[in-house]
Automatic annotation (TrEMBL):
Protein name, per record: Cation-transporting P-type ATPase C-terminal domain-containing protein
UniProt keyword terms in alphabetical order: Membrane, Transmembrane, Transmembrane helix
Residues that span the membrane, as ranges: 21-42, 48-69
Species the sequence originates in: Emiliania huxleyi (strain CCMP1516)
High-level lineage: Eukaryota, Haptista, Haptophyta, Prymnesiophyceae, Isochrysidales
Residue span, Cation-transporting P-type ATPase C-terminal domain: 21-68
Matches recorded under SUPFAM superfamilies: Calcium ATPase, transmembrane domain M
Length: 85
């Protein structure tokens, strides 16, 4: 049996919680009775395209910043290792 670290276990739990939340949001949006109770309407294709148009650049910038951070962290690690030699 594979050992699962505490962090991996926490990540799995977080993912499950996020997927449940997302599922509930879709159920509330697209089940007419629940949409009426919560006073919401489903998003149209144009609405989703607008959401993607505004969120995609943010995702790209965020991923670029993470990449820069990883590169800088790796470079700092290599500098520390060279000093120890």
């Amino acid at each position: 049996m594979k050992h699962v670290s505490k962090k991996e276990s926490q990540n799995e739990e977080d993912l499950k919680k996020k997927l449940r939340s997302l599922g509930l949001h879709f159920v509330i949006m697209y089940v007419p009775v629940l949409a009426t109770i919560f006073s919401i309407v489903p998003l149209t294709l144009n609405d989703w395209l607008l959401v993607l148009a505004f969120s995609f650049p943010v995702i790209i910038v965020d991923e670029a910043l993470k990449l820069v951070g990883r590169v800088r962290e790796r470079a700092a690690f290599h500098r520390r290792m060279e000093k120890e030699e």
